[in-house]
C-alpha cells in the first residue's frame, strides 16, 4: 500500500485515496491515543474521532489534500510515534505544553516537524537524530531548555533548522557543520555562548543565518567568508568585537540584510559594502564604529534601511555628511538613522531629495548646523522626524505642515528662532511634538 500521511497546520492528517479503501488499524489507534491527550477542544474537532465512522471521515483527517485549521491545547501524545507512515507533522501555533515526546524519533519517514509557537518545555530529545529523513525541523517560540544536541549533526538532509526564541544554553555545536544541505539556520533569542565554529564554513548552501540576541563572542566569524550564498547575516545583540575586514563586501554578492547592531565592533565601516549591490538593510547601531560612512550608495539602489545610530562616526569636518548625496539614488529608502554620532557641518540640501518612500529620518545628537529646508515637505511619507540636539538655526518652515503622515516631530535643543508655524496644526496624525530648548517666540498656535 502506498501511503502518505501528514499532520498539517494545527492538525490535519492527509492520506492517499487508497487508504480510504484499505485502512490501517495501527494508525487509527495512534490517532485515538493522540486524541486522549488533548485537554481543550473548543472547536469540537475530535467529536467525530471514534470507531463508529471510518477514519477518513474524522474531522481533520482527509483522504486527499484538503487542509483544515483548529486550535488545540494539552500535551503531544507519544502515540504519534506509532504513525509509521507519517511524513509531516505540523502542530504550530497551538497551546501544547510539557515536553517533546521521545517516541517521535520512531517516525523514520518523517521529513517535516513543526512544533513552533507552543509552550513546550524540557530539552530537545537527543534521539530526534534518528529521524534521518528530516528536511525541516522547526521548534522555535517555545520554552525549551538545555543544550542543542550534538547529534543534530546526524540530520544531514536538513534544509531548515529553526530553534530561535527558546531558553537554550551552551555553545554552538560544531556538528552543525555536517548539515551541508542547510539553507536556513535560526538560533536567535536564546542564551548561547562561545564562538561560532569554523565548521560553519562547510554550509555552502546557507542563505539565512540568524544568531541575534545570544552571548556569542569573538570577532566577526571568519567561517562566514566562505558562504557566498548568504542573503541574511543577523548577529545583533551579542558580544562580538574587533574590526570588520575592509574587503567584507566582496565576499557576499547575494547579501540583502546585514544586522550587526548592539555589539562591540569598532574601526571603520567597510567601504566594500558598496559592492554588495543587493543590500536591502544595513543595521549597525550601538557599536564603536569610527570614521565616515561609505559614500558609494549609488550602487545600493535597492537599499531600504540604513541604521548607524549610536556610534562614534564623523571626523568633525564639513564633509562629514557628504554620504547623504549618494543616498538620493536609493529610491526605495524607508529608514535613515545616523543620530547620536559626531557629525558636524551643514545639513545637506540633498536631504530633501531622499526617497519619497522615506518614513523615518533621525540625525539627533550630532553637531549639525544650517537651517531646515522648506523642501523638507518633499518627504511626504515621513512619520518620524528627529533633528533634536544639534545646532540648527533659522525658523521652522511652514511647509512642515504638509507632512500629513507625521506622527512624531522632535526639534528640541537647537538654535531655532521665530514663531511656531500654525501649519503644524494640520498634522492630524501627530502624537509627539518636542520644540523645547530653542529660541522660539510668540504664541502657541491655537490648533495645537
UniProtKB/TrEMBL annotation:
One of its GO terms (cellular component) is plasma membrane. Residues 25-63 form the Leucine-rich repeat-containing N-terminal plant-type domain. Its main location: membrane. Residues 121-310 form the Disease resistance R13L4/SHOC-2-like LRR domain. Keywords: Glycoprotein, Leucine-rich repeat, Membrane, Repeat, Signal, Transmembrane, Transmembrane helix. InterPro entries: Leu-rich_rpt (IPR001611), Leu-rich_rpt_typical-subtyp (IPR003591), LRR_dom_sf (IPR032675), LRR_N_plant-typ (IPR013210), LRR_R13L4/SHOC2-like (IPR055414). It is found in: Membrane. GO terms for molecular function: signaling receptor activity. This is Receptor kinase. The lineage of its organism: Eukaryota, Viridiplantae, Streptophyta, Embryophyta, Tracheophyta.
Amino acid at each position: 500500500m502506498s501511503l502518505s500521511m501528514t499532520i498539517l497546520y494545527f492538525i490535519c492528517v492527509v492520506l492517499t485515496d487508497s487508504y480510504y479503501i484499505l485502512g490501517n488499524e495501527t494508525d487509527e489507534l495512534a490517532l485515538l491515543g493522540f486524541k486522549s491527550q488533548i485537554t481543550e477542544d473548543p472547536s469540537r474537532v475530535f467529536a467525530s474521532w471514534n470507531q463508529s465512522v471510518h477514519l477518513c471521515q474524522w474531522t481533520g483527517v482527509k483522504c486527499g489534500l484538503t487542509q483544515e485549521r483548529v486550535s488545540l491545547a494539552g500535551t503531544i501524545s507519544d502515540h504519534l510515534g506509532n504513525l509509521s507512515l507519517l511524513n509531516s507533522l505540523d502542530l504550530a501555533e497551538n497551546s501544547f505544553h510539557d515536553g517533546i515526546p521521545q517516541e517521535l524519533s520512531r517516525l523514520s519517514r518523517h521529513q517535516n516537524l513543526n512544533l513552533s509557537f507552543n509552550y513546550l518545555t524540557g530539552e530537545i530529545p537527543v534521539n530526534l537524530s534518528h529521524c534521518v529523513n528530516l528536511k525541516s525541523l522547526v521548534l522555535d517560540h517555545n520554552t525549551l531548555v538545555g543544550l542543542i544536541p550534538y547529534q543534530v549533526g546526524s540530520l544531514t538532509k536538513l534544509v531548515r533548522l529553526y530553534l530561535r526564541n527558546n531558553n537554550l544554553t551552551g555553545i554552538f555545536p560544531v556538528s552543525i557543520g555536517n548539515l551541508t544541505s542547510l539553507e536556513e539556520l535560526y538560533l536567535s533569542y536564546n542564551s548561547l555562548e562561545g564562538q561560532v565554529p569554523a565548521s560553519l564554513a562547510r554550509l555552502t548552501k546557507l542563505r539565512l543565518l540568524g544568531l541575534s540576541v545570544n552571548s556569542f563572542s569573538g570577532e566577526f566569524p571568519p567561517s562566514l567568508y566562505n558562504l557566498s550564498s548568504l542573503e541574511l547575516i543577523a548577529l545583533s545583540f551579542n558580544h562580538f568585537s574587533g574590526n570588520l575586514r575592509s574587503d567584507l563586501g566582496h565576499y557576499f554578492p547575494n547579501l540583502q540584510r546585514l544586522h550587526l547592531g548592539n555589539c562591540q565592533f569598532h574601526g571603520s565601516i567597510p567601504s566594500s559594502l558598496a559592492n554588495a549591490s543587493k543590500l536591502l538593510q544595513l543595521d549597525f547601531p550601538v557599536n564603536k564604529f569610527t570614521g565616515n560612512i561609505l559614500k558609494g550608495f549609488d550602487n545600493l539602489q535597492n537599499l531600504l534601511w540604513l541604521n548607524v545610530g549610536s556610534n562614534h562616526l564623523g571626523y568633525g569636518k564639513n564633509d562629514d555628511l557628504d554620504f547623504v548625496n549618494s543616498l538620493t539614488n536609493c529610491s526605495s529608502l524607508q529608514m535613515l538613522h545616523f543620530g547620536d554620532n559626531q557629525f558636524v557641518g551643514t545639513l545637506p540640501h540633498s536631504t530633501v531629495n531622499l526617497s519619497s518612500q522615506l518614513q523615518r529620518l533621525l540625525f539627533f545628537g550630532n553637531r549639525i548646523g544650517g537651517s531646515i529646508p522648506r523642501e523638507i515637505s518633499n518627504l511626504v511619507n515621513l512619520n518620524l522626524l528627529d533633528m533634536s540636539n544639534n545646532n540648527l538655526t533659522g525658523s521652522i518652515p511652514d511647509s512642515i505642515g504638509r507632512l500629513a503622515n507625521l506622527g512624531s516631530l522632535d526639534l528640541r535643543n537647537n538654535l531655532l528662532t521665530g514663531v511656531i508655524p500654525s501649519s503644524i496644526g494640520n498634522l492630524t496624525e501627530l502624537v509627539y511634538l518636542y520644540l523645547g530648548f530653542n529660541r522660539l517666540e510668540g504664541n502657541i498656535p491655537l490648533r495645537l
